[in-house]
Amino acid sequence: MDPAETEKLKQAISTQGARVGQHEQALQGIMESLHNLTAGFTQLSGRLDQSFIQLNMLTAPAPEIPVIHPGQPREPFIPTPVRYSGLVCDRELASSSQEQMRHTCFHSPLHL
């Protein structure tokens, strides 16, 4: 090999070694951050579990459903009303229709 090429090869290997060292440091930092994140998540998960337990202890029990005895009706009995025949207001309707006929505005055609 040519000494110039050997020097370039040494330089390239040295540069790659430095980059590998930087990558190792970055990976160690990432692993440390991941470890801290996992520990924080575990702590928060435990606190959340405790909160759920406390919440379940604080909630009021469901109200009891009232028992309906067989002799007691559920709804009051309302009788069916008498059917309307329409004869009660017959005179009033007839008089109002006659009154409308007396007014001239009802006989004249509409002008728009």
Annotation keywords:
elongated; 2 helices; 112 residues; mainly alpha; 0% strand
H/E series = HH
Q: What is the general shape?
A: elongated
- The Cα radius of gyration reads 48 Å
- Count of runs of 4 or more consecutive helical residues: 2
How many E-type strands?
0
Tell me the major beta sheet.
none
First-to-last CA distance:
111 Å
Strand residue percentage:
under 5%
What is the averaged pLDDT score?
A: 80
Q: Helix proportion of residues, in percent?
A: 55-70%
- Structural class per helix/strand content? mainly alpha
Query: Low-confidence parts lasting 5 or more residues at pLDDT below 50?
Result: none
Describe the structure.
By secondary structure, this protein is mostly helical. It contains 2 helices and no strands.
Can you lay out the helices and strands and say which pair or pack?
Elements: H1 3-58, H2 90-102
